[in-house]
Amino acid sequence: MPNDVSRRDLAKLAGLAALGAANGPAQAEEGAVKEDTGRRFPADFVWGTATSSYQIEGAATADGRGPSIWDVFTHRQGNIEDGSTGDVACDHYNRYKDDVRLIKELGCRAYRFSIAWSRLFPDGGLTPNPKGLDFYNRLVDELMANGIEPYATLYHWDLPQALQDRVGGWRSAETAKAFAHYAGYVAQHLSDRVKTIFTINECGRFVPFGYGLGIDAPGLKLPQAEVNQARHHVALAHGLAVQAIRAKGRAGTRVGMAENITACLPAIDTPENILAAEIATREMNAGFLNVILEGRYTEPFLAGAGKNAPTFTADELNTISAPVDFVGLNIYAPQAYVVASNRAPGFDVLPMPSSFPHMSSPWLLVGPETAYWVPKLAAKIWNLKTIYITENGTSSDDKVTADGKVNDLDRVMYLRNYLAQLQRATSEGVPVKGYFLWSLMDNFEWVFGYKQRFGIYHVDFDSQVRTPKLSAAYYRHVITRNAASA
């Protein structure tokens, strides 16, 4: 993952007086241009926001919670840029009622949170921790009392450390079986109120970064064959969890996954390049999304992996491809602009210029059209009927002004442009049913610690005071109008 870099100096904009900021709100007059009510999201579109357990909860040892791989990883010197941990984070475990109020103030109808596996099963085994379940019961009840629908994610990277120690974590199929047991338990106890469950979040990040590059927990640098096998075990865990949720959950419980899909876009939207982007999307996501949605590893994927290809059985592929009710797509930056090629596999990835615009995180390239092409291509390739944008947002170089405000204009710019492109997709019938902004509040941002801020609520990590940023006002405006707005 790229390291932080200094922001480029911004030129001052001339002619601010011409904006008429001092004139007050405009009054509607006869003959004024009426708002185009067609430029809106579908009437039943779900607006939400998202967080994850390790990034916000804190209370690392409270009420019987066992250590996760991130607890151990963050306490090893040198792994986190600012030397911090998630031991306290946003103290959400103790402040969840206040945080639910923030969600309600935004006007969100939904909240996507993750459950800490080691809070429910401290040693990753079969014996549950009732106090861990109690917390999520309280959280879900608080959400519903405030008119907010809970969307639960079972795995957002915080594997019980005991499973890592005992069987090697995702290197072993035993972890997939343990995950299925955990999934069934959650469904049995929460699906009376939680009707939408995501199994795995971002296999495309935590496997290569945690088991291949050593950047994320558990910090391993394994040979590629073992990385590919670990990814296969994660896909198997998803399939087993789908089966367990179907068996243990209440009628009407919906299940799917959330993946940081490798975003492949046509460099220019000619028919040839669009077809190339379809091919690239399937092949560059062949190791997880495609095997789940098609029940097979593609021939180019297996040929490219060669001797490093995962081993698997036909029964495992059948389990992995258990039907899902939806697909969640996490969308931030374009990963590949492609053009058609006469050579196999039918596309070329263009090199990214060093001058390509990005946000405060150097990896977060600004490509609003990603929010249009990714769900559009995914729906066509895999015949998807229900898609959620389960994460989208940006870091910002947030500064608190003397009067306590955070005018994160860059984040507002980013969201406005991405949402406009998503609105373009839904207007064309792409089946995106909801959007979860990442993130509700600043939090522990993995290897960057607290140096990068993705929230639309600013968090003072010393006082734990939450303050709405300008982007919170913008998102509230979007939700109220059900439109991205110009």
UniProtKB/TrEMBL annotation:
UniProt keyword annotation of DNA repair present:
no
Query: Which Pfam families does the annotation name?
Result: Glyco_hydro_1
Please name the top-level EC class of this enzyme: hydrolase
Is Zinc a UniProt keyword of this protein?
no
Q: Name one GO molecular function term.
A: beta-galactosidase activity
Q: EC number(s) of the enzyme?
A: 3.2.1.21
Record field: catalytic activity: Hydrolysis of terminal, non-reducing beta-D-glucosyl residues with release of beta-D-glucose
Q: Which SUPFAM superfamilies match?
A: (Trans)glycosidases (SSF51445)
User: Keywords of this protein's UniProt record, alphabetized?
Assistant: Carbohydrate metabolism, Cellulose degradation, Glycosidase, Hydrolase, Polysaccharide degradation
Which PANTHER family would you find in this protein's record? GLYCOSYL HYDROLASE (PTHR10353), LP05116P (PTHR10353:SF36)
User: Its family?
Assistant: Belongs to the glycosyl hydrolase 1 family.
Protein name per its UniProtKB record:
Beta-glucosidase
Organism of provenance = Bradyrhizobium ontarionense
